[in-house]
Design a protein that fits this description.
380 residues, binds acetoacetyl-coenzyme A, Butyryl-CoA Dehydrogenase, subunit A, domain 2, Butyryl-CoA Dehydrogenase, subunit A, domain 3, single chain, 10 strands, globular, four-stranded antiparallel sheet, alpha+beta, Butyryl-Coa Dehydrogenase, subunit A, domain 1, four-stranded mixed sheet
Length: 380
């Protein structure tokens, strides 16, 4: 086992770090405050290859590995976790899903554009009554000639308002439960497909989260991903990879909270000395650094397993479960270290806490990750 990155991986990390500092950092707080989507930054991310990192060059992607993706996701999310989730959904749910299970037609028509950011993607699995219980799909897709007619509502859809294409899971045969769900690529502008409510959120406020409605929305058969009935497995397999992206996002937030705490503790004086000289602060910093490193190792392990074509579902759930907890804990500690200044918007750490919380919820709550992990443990 070698704990060493390749030159390419280090180059990608540096590129993402520079982009985040130059382009995202100056406006991250303001966009959070105003709930403004980072249109220009997302366009530039596409041009830099950050939106189709693992897509093969044949389909205009960057042709990189998952480890590089984790390194870049951490750097982007360290500065702006909202930009991080926009990037994560496009890369690991939408592009990866189409690259692995889409048809050649779908790759030519959609993946090539998604990989370069000319199109943005969203992933619509959740519904008002199907969050953790994802197979309880109420959205239906009824076959009519060479089309499917979709009716239903999706909610909490990241990128939903700005997406050009949405991967939609819907029941094609309700009697078959999880085996009666299919996945479809639905284009923006398709009649009957509308963006409904935009949510006002605690954190990641400059990314959009919306509900989507489908009313007699006709989707051509060639837009179905895989066979009829493959939709639930498609969603689960895609989420196995997505959870690595969210673990890396959580890692970025935790690292940001740690770095802010380190800096502040070397500047702030109390009782006649820098607070970094108090053991109470030193131990907090030591615990934060240790937990962040453990979260990073779990996340990189899941990525390395995926790159090696080894089973990685359990590793990815462990990485997300642990990294999301470390993000919340680190943000809380950062606020404590900053005292009253941590609670106000003059310092960035209150945003880190607001942004961290969602990593314990989306792409499977921490409870869902424990289901996945325990089922894997019990079946061995
Ligand atoms: N890979 C392949 N197949 C899988 C799989 C996986 N990871 N997980 C499940 N399956 C298969 C099972 O093997 C089973 O197939 P068979 O009957 O042929 O064996 C079938 O799928 C049904 O699986 P389960 O019986 O395990 O299904 P379940 O109803 O018990 O659900 C669950 C399991 C883990 C709780 C699942 O529902 C789940 O992951 N829920 C959370 C959903 C989620 O993460 N939502 C996030 C929404 S997307 C999002 O947040 C994106 C965003 O905007 C940021």
């Amino acid at each position: 086992m070698e704990f060493k990155f390749t030159e390419t991986q280090l180059m990608i990390k540096e590129m993402a770090k520079k982009f985040a500092q130059d382009v995202l950092a100056p406006s991250a707080n303001e966009r959070d405050e105003k709930e403004e989507f980072p249109y220009e930054a997302v366009k530039q991310m596409g041009e830099l290859g950050l939106l189709g990192m693992m897509v093969s060059e044949k389909y205009n992607g960057a042709g990189l590995d998952t480890v590089s993706y984790v390194l870049a996701m951490e750097e982007i999310s360290k500065i702006d976790a909202a930009a991080g989730v926009i990037m994560s959904v496009n890369n690991s749910l939408v592009c990866y899903g189409i690259q692995e299970w889409g048809s050649e037609y779908q790759k030519e028509k959609y993946l090539k554009q998604l990989a370069t950011g000319k199109m943005l993607g969203a992933f619509a699995l959740s519904e008002p009554e199907a969050g953790s219980d994802a197979s309880n799909q109420k959205t239906v897709a009824i076959k009519d000639g060479n089309h499917y007619v979709l009716n239903g509502t999706k909610n909490f859809i990241t990128n939903g308002a700005n997406a050009d294409v949405v991967l939609v899971m819907a029941a094609t045969d309700k009697s078959k439960g999880a085996h009666g769900i299919s996945a479809f690529i639905v284009e923006k502008g398709t009649q009957g497909f509308e963006v409904a409510k935009k949510e006002k959120k605690l954190g990641i406020r400059s990314s959009d989260t919306v509900s989507l409605s489908f009313t007699d929305c006709r989707v051509p058969e060639e837009n179905r991903i895989g066979e009829e009935g493959f939709g639930f497995k498609f969603a689960m397999k895609t989420l196995d990879g997505g959870r690595i992206g969210i673990a890396a996002q959580a890692l970025g937030i935790a690292q940001a909270a740690f770095e802010a705490s380190l800096k502040y503790s070397k500047e702030r004086k109390a009782f006649g000395q820098l607070i970094a000289e108090f053991q109470a602060i030193q131990f907090k910093l030591a615990d934060m650094a240790t937990k962040i490193e453990a979260a990073r190792l779990l996340t990189l392990k899941a990525a390395a397993l995926k790159d090696a074509n080894e089973p990685y579902g359990m590793a990815s759930s462990m990485a997300k479960l642990y990294a999301s907890k470390v993000a919340v804990d680190s943000a809380l500690e950062a606020i404590q270290i900053h005292g009253g200044y941590g609670y106000i918007k003059d310092y960035p750490v209150e945003r880190y806490l607001r942004d961290a919380k969602i990593t314990e919820i989306y792409e499977g709550t921490s409870e869902v990750q424990r289901i996945v992990i325990s089922r894997n443990i019990l079946k061995t």
